[in-house]
Every structure is written in structure tokens, then in C-alpha cells.
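Quick one, probably user error.
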């Protein structure tokens, strides 16, 4: 596939994802925008492997195929359309192989038939793989020095992923995924091995409040780290943070007893974010 066709392919993936990411990243210069779209398409592709129907064995095989594809990519021999689209950004921005492999390793956790986090350290490692690693790739594209960008990737990645976890508690429990650390559950005497029963325990809202406190502190850390950077350079990251922070605040306002009630931003809120920051 020609690079131009590969670029059209990844752009379509982002555009059809139904997220505000597509519009948020359109404020970037073309070269950086194309690069970030390709990274997103890679993340979407491996995420879909874990989330789509199929056996754990088959999912892990497909993720292993992606590991080999990343190796081919860094050898200059990409085969998939997404890899072809990533070929130029890797050379142009020095994107790190380790970060791509970290994302795959994190998604391998999601591909398991049953997901549990034994400790908060395990949850932190997972967040680092599936979110912070993407932040590191993004920072390289934005052009942020590693010393300045690393605190942003760590704090913002943790904040965004914890927001995802808190938002998706009910949905995840339905497919036997529970990302809340077992040590936190045990501290509140929530001992059920059934994820659906665990999230309906009378003390489960207390656990959610504890995770929400950690997420809130992570947003504060991310805001401070971003304040040390050139605002224009990191505007896409700021937009994503504000997007998720709004969702987080809506989750907190809803509370943790009616986890079935979906939380998302309406069109007016998304448009407000786009107009506010696109004009900055």
C-alpha cells in the first residue's frame, strides 16, 4: 500500500471512531496530525482485538502478530496499512519502539478471559502501558523535551485511564473485567470473586471514592506539569485533559451507586471545548 493510501486509511479510522479526538487533533500542523492519527489507529487496532468477540488464545495470537509487525516496522519493512502510515513518523519524530510494545503488553491484559488487578501497583503498571506510553509517543510528536514531557505522560495518562475505569465499571463487570485493585476491595471487606457482585457491594462506592481521589490528584499533577510547557505546543493534550476532566466531574456528580447510568459529553459540551481551545 502506498503511504498516501495508508494515511487515508488511518484518517478514516480516527474519523469513524466517534470520539472528539479526531477534531481535537485537527488543530495540529499536518505532519504532526498525520503522525498522531497513525498512533491512534494503532491503539484502536490493538484495543479492538481485546474488545471484539473471540477466544483468549486467538486474541493473544493476533497481539503477537502485532508485536512482530512492530519489529518489521522498525526494520523499515511495514506490512499493514497502519504500519505503513507509521513508517514516516517513526523516522521523523524518533518514536520509541518500547512504547508501542508497552501498549500491546497492556492490551494483552484486556485480552484475558478474566481481568483482575491484585494490587494498586499492578493497576499503575497497566495504566502506564495502555495510557502513559501513548502519552510518551504523543509528546515526541508534539516536540516536548523528555524531561518535561515525562511528568505529563505519567500524570495525564493515569488520570485518563482511571476515568475510563470509573466510567466503565458496569460494562466491564459484565464481561468479567474488574480493574479496581483486589487489595482495595479486601480493605473494605469486598471478597466476592464475581465482578458483577463486587460492584454492587454496599461498600463499593467507598472504593470508587478512593480511586476518584487518586484520579483528581492526577489531574492536578497533569495541570501543573502542562503549565511548565508552551501552551500552544501542548494544546491537543490540554484539550484531551479537559474533555476527560468534564467526564470525570460528571461521574463524581452522578455518584457510585447507580453505575448503570451512562456518562458522556453531549454535542454542545464537545463543541464548547473545540471552540474554546481551537481559538487559543
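Nope, works fine. Designed sequence:
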Amino acid at each position: 500500500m502506498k503511504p498516501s493510501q495508508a494515511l487515508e486509511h488511518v484518517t478514516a479510522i480516527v474519523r469513524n471512531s466517534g470520539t472528539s479526538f479526531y477534531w481535537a487533533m485537527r488543530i495540529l500542523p499536518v505532519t504532526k496530525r498525520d503522525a498522531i492519527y497513525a498512533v491512534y489507529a494503532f491503539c484502536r487496532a490493538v484495543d479492538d482485538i481485546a474488545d471484539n468477540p473471540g477466544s483468549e488464545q486467538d486474541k493473544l495470537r493476533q497481539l503477537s502478530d502485532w508485536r512482530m509487525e512492530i519489529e518489521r516496522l522498525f526494520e523499515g519493512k511495514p506490512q499493514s496499512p497502519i504500519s505503513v502510515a507509521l513508517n514516516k513518523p517513526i523516522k521523523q519524530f524518533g518514536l520509541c519502539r518500547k512504547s508501542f510494545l508497552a501498549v500491546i503488553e497492556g492490551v494483552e491484559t484486556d485480552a484475558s478471559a478474566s481481568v483482575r488487578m491484585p494490587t494498586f501497583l499492578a493497576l499503575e503498571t497497566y495504566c502506564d502501558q495502555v495510557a502513559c506510553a501513548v502519552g510518551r509517543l504523543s509528546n515526541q510528536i508534539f516536540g516536548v523535551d523528555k524531561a518535561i514531557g515525562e511528568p505529563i505522560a505519567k500524570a495525564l495518562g493515569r488520570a485518563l485511564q482511571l476515568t475510563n475505569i470509573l466510567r466503565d465499571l458496569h460494562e466491564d463487570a459484565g464481561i468479567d473485567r474488574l480493574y479496581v485493585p483486589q487489595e482495595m476491595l479486601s480493605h473494605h471487606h469486598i471478597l466476592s470473586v464475581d465482578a458483577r457482585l463486587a460492584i454492587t457491594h454496599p461498600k463499593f462506592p467507598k472504593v470508587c471514592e478512593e480511586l476518584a481521589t487518586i484520579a483528581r490528584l492526577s489531574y492536578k499533577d497533569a495541570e501543573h506539569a502542562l503549565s511548565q510547557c508552551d501552551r500552544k505546543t501542548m494544546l491537543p493534550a490540554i484539550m484531551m485533559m479537559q474533555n476527560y476532566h468534564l467526564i470525570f466531574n460528571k461521574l463524581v456528580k452522578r455518584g457510585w451507586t447507580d453505575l448503570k447510568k451512562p456518562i458522556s459529553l453531549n454535542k454542545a459540551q464537545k463543541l464548547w471545548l473545540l471552540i474554546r481551545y481551537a481559538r487559543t
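The chain has a mean pLDDT of 92.
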